[in-house]
Every structure is written in C-alpha cells, then in structure tokens.
TrEMBL record:
The lineage of its organism: Eukaryota, Viridiplantae, Streptophyta, Embryophyta, Tracheophyta. This is Hexosyltransferase. Pathway: Glycan metabolism; pectin biosynthesis. GO terms for molecular function: glycosyltransferase activity. It is an enzyme of class 2 (transferase). It comes from the Eukaryota. It is found in: Membrane. It comes from Sesamum radiatum. One of its GO terms (cellular component) is membrane. Its EC number is 2.4.1.-.
Length: 382
C-alpha cells in the first residue's frame, strides 16, 4: 500500500456523461455536392442549441501535466500523514504493488461526494476517518464527482491522491441531468445542487460487487473507529441504518399552502411526534437496495450523527452537542466550520473540526485554550 499510483479510473455507468449521436443517411439527390457535410452540420447545430451537449463537453488534463507539488500549490492542501494498519488487522489482497480493488471482501466501503465547493470539508472528513480507524488500509473510498464541476473529476482524483498517496479510492462521474428536473427550490442553494442527490443512486453507481456502504456528507468528522459503524447490524427487511429524530417542529418545514391542503397535511395527522432521519450518515445495504426490498430503516444510536452543528440555517446560531457519547460530528445546516474559522468568528464546536483541516491557507484563530478545553470536555484525542 505504500506504492503510488499514477492512473485513476473514472467510472461511467448509466449515470455517466457519455453522449451518443446517431445520424440518419440523407438522400443522395439532396444537395449532392455537400451531402457528406450534413452529419457535421447537424452535430454543430446540436452543439449550438442543446445545453446538455454543450455542458457535456470537457477536457481532462494529461496525467503528466500536474504533479503533486503543482496540485498542492494550486489548491493549497498539505499531504496527510500516512496511516497504516496495526498488526491485528486483516491483510488486504492483492499485496502491493498491485492496486486494491473494490471487490475485496475485507474492505470497509465509504461513499462521499466530491466537488470544488466542499472540497476542504471532504478532505477533512477523509482525514478524520483514517486518523481514528483501527485498520485504515481496509477503508475504500468511493467518490461521486459532479459531471459539470468547475474542476474536472480527473483533476479532483489526482488531488485526492496527492493529499492521501496510499488511499484506496475510486472516482465515479454522476450525470446531473438524472435529477436536475426533479429538484424544487430550497431556502439553501446547496440543496439545489444535483450532486446532493447522488446518494440516492449509489446502488446503480457503485460497482455491483459492493453490497454494503457507509455514506458520509462532506461537512462532518469522525472521532471514533469507522469499523464500529460498519459493523452495525441491519436486520432482515431493512436497507438503511440511520439515527432517527422525533423532536422536530415540522410546522416550519412547510409553507401555508402545504398545511392548508388536506391531502398533503394529512400525512402528519396520525403522528403526534413526526420523525425523520438525516441522510448525511447512512449505512446502506446495497444488495437489498438493488433488489428493491425496501423495509423500515434501522434506528442506530444518536452518537453516530450529532448533526445540526451548522446552525440549521439560522445565521450566527451556535449549537451544543446532544447528551451522551459522541462518535461523529456533523455540521449540517448553513454554517460550516471552515467558513466561520476563516472569518475568525467560530462556534465553540468548530475547534473540534480544525485539527482535521489539511488546507494550508487556513486562518489561524488565536484561541488555543478553547480548542484544548473542547477536546478535554468531550474526550477527543488526536
């Protein structure tokens, strides 16, 4: 696992950005001198008038163009420490220098989205997983990249490798047109990003040999061994393991038009305490998902998704942790820890995210005593 790979597969499934064109043959008597140009003319017209095709054209830089040092200078990230398995960890097959495949049955599979906007958060999340994993070389990351991101999937792939040289991972390209017409407007623009819904298609995107996966959002960090989450039992007839929350005020989630419509609002009529689960942390049985056996979700412990630390869309609101043990911190909501730290106006819990940040251009916040106090209070050690 100490080897460095120079080739990164970009997998394209039925959700990939591959485009196909077919042109019917024209009659020979029609513009005989220019009939051979008709396919090219049609192609040019499609490029001019079809937004999908225009957006689908992108260039991937040659693997030799950008070196690791170039990527570090361009994006401003430091290389992470090299985390290795302990003596009690199972061996990964095949052995180096052969690359590890996603079909190895001993692997722990983690899926995340990868884009330029949340890149800093994603790298911190990966760093936290590796730092606290008892067997970091057993973790295989599946990154779902946006088809039309300002930074191409191939460049993002090379950047991940430059930050984590020994990381086992694979990058998949998500076809955004799969969901773009299904998204309604939201109070948060981030929720209108098609990549936000790629988690619903993991059963189709990931390799068929991957039958179980942990999905993680980009705005969280783990402070416990991910193997514990991987070993959560999902009983027969259930496909998702996720913490359930039953104390939300659903009257604020919908407008007056919703509540005034009897056909829509009656879904909550028989529920005194409507419940939901946050999809930012899920253990998914992809085998059952693909077979269409949709059962009720598994209720895992709250410690595996201490969410809402981003303020839940309320500007300037800092949240506290729920009582009890904590294994994962999730900054869901509008406020992100790297933004508040750079603005020198962090919430107390943002100091728990900072040690995993690999961005070299971060702003130093001169309150080390607060960071140490938070770490000691919650028993987190780095």
């Amino acid at each position: 696992m100490s080897h460095r790979r120079d080739v990164f597969p970009l997998t394209q499934s039925k959700f990939s950005s591959t485009l196909f064109f077919s042109f019917s043959r024209k009659r020979k008597w029609f513009f005989p001198r220019f009939c051979h140009l008709i396919p090219a003319l049609v192609f040019l017209l499609l490029l001019l008038y079809s937004p999908l095709i225009c957006l689908g054209i992108r260039s991937f830089p040659n693997n030799d163009v950008l070196t690791s040092s170039d990527l570090h200078a361009l994006f401003g990230f430091s290389e992470a420490p090299d985390y290795r398995n302990g003596v009690d960890c199972p061996s990964v097959s095949p052995s180096p220098p052969d690359p590890v495949t996603s079909c190895d049955p001993s692997l722990v599979h983690v899926a995340m989205t990868l884009d330029s906007e949340y890149l800093r958060g994603s790298m911190a999340a990966v760093h936290s997983v590796l730092r606290h994993a008892s067997c970091p070389e057993q973790v295989f990351f599946h990154f779902i990249a946006a088809e039309f991101d300002s930074v191409s999937p191939r460049v993002l792939s090379r950047l991940v490798h430059s930050i984590f040289p020994s990381l086992n991972f694979k990058v998949y390209i998500f076809r955004e047109d799969t969901v773009i017409n299904l998204i309604s407007s939201s109070i948060r623009s981030a929720l209108e990003n098609p990549l936000n819904y790629a988690r619903n298609y993991l059963g189709d995107i990931l390799d068929p040999c991957v039958n179980r996966v942990i999905y993680l959002d980009s705005d969280l960090v783990l402070v416990d061994d991910i193997l514990k989450l991987w070993e959560v039992k999902i009983s027969e007839g259930r496909i998702i393991g996720a913490p359930e929350y039953c104390h939300a005020n659903f009257t604020k989630y919908f407008n007056e038009n919703f509540w005034s419509d009897p056909g829509l609002s009656r879904v909550f009529r028989s529920r005194r305490n409507p419940c939901y689960f946050n999809t930012g942390v899920m253990v998914m049985d992809l085998g059952k998902w693909r077979r269409g056996i949709f059962g009720r979700r598994l209720r895992t412990g709250w410690k595996w998704n201490q969410h809402g630390l981003g303020g839940d869309n309320v500007a300037g609101s800092c949240r506290a942790l729920h009582p009890g043990p904590v294994s994962l911190l999730h900054w869901s909501g509008k406020g992100k820890p790297w933004v508040r730290l750079d603005d020198k106006n962090p919430c107390p819990l943002d100091y728990l995210w900072e040690p995993y940040d690999l961005y070299k251009g971060k702003v130093k916040v001169q309150h080390p005593e607060r960071q140490e106090q938070q770490q000691q209070q919650f028993g987190f050690f780095w």
